[in-house]
Amino acid sequence: MFLFKKIVSKFLFPLPFCFLIALAGLYLLWFTKKQKAGKALVSIGLVMIFLFSSNFVANRLVFPFENRYSKFETQISEGKASLKPQSSIRFVVVLGGGHVTNTELPITSQLNEPVIVRLIEGIRIQRQYPEAKLILSGGTIRDPNPQAKLLAELALELGVSEKDIILESESKDTKDEALMIRALVENHPFALVTSASHMPRAMALFRKAGMNPIAAPTDHLVKDLHGSGFSTWFPSALNLHKSERAVYESLGILWAKLRSQI
User: What pTM was estimated for this model as a whole?
Assistant: First the structure.
């Protein structure tokens, strides 16, 4: 079921979906007499690619996900975190986000960029609460090493003490992470660090598992919702990535609801 979900969802992402529409139109144009239908499908596919690749559309697709939770803040007073509800957190949980083991590359190139940003944010928060443990999450599907192991290697190089690191290296997806981490944090308050676009789904899954995490979103794709000028509509691969993230999270939430996971 896990592989089925991963494979089918790929065809629903903006770029392959639009290409399938355009290719269907080309088939009609080249091999049938349905010329009007073929022209319409090719046009629809190209227009959709243009829209998904524009800053204006992409930002408005992903912003509702990223804007759901505010940034995690600690009040600093005289060099120490002031007492507030968050100050009692016992754990800082960093969710995985993709990796490829290749010892020919530095550790920062083996981990996907979003998960590196998550780790840095997790370390930043953990240093405000020295008593808190850093839980690094992420298993493996086809890679020989679990992602949590690579995250731990980088965390150690960034100065985190080994005694402050806990690994969760069995999960394959966010649902698994929630179930596995529940056994580690029990009823203790903790900060949940993941990409801002992924935070709504992650929070829903963790709450469904009986926990009450404090959201700590990072890796925001939308820096300025509005923008201005010609560049707002000029297509780019970055904007296409934003649209893909919005579709990915929408599909993830839909799947979780259909499976009664949230």
Answer: 0.91
H/E run at residue 218: strand 214-218
- Exposure string of 163-197, with b = 16+ CB inside 10 Å and e = fewer, is ebbbbbbebebbbbbbbbbeebbeeebbbbbbbbb
d(CA 40, CA 151): 48
User: Which pLDDT value is given to residue 77?
Assistant: 44
- Give the C-alpha separation, 43 to 212, whole Å: 47
Give Cβ neighbours of residue 260 (< 8 Å, ≥ 6 apart). none
Check: CB of residue 13 under 8 Å from CB of residue 238.
no
In the block, residue with structure tokens 């008593």: 131
CA distance 189 to 50: 44
- As a whole number of Å, the end-to-end CA separation of the chain is 17
Query: Is the CATH number of domain 71-218 3.30.365.10?
Result: no
Q: Which helix (H) or strand (E) holds 154?
A: helix 147-157
Average model confidence (pLDDT) across the chain: 91
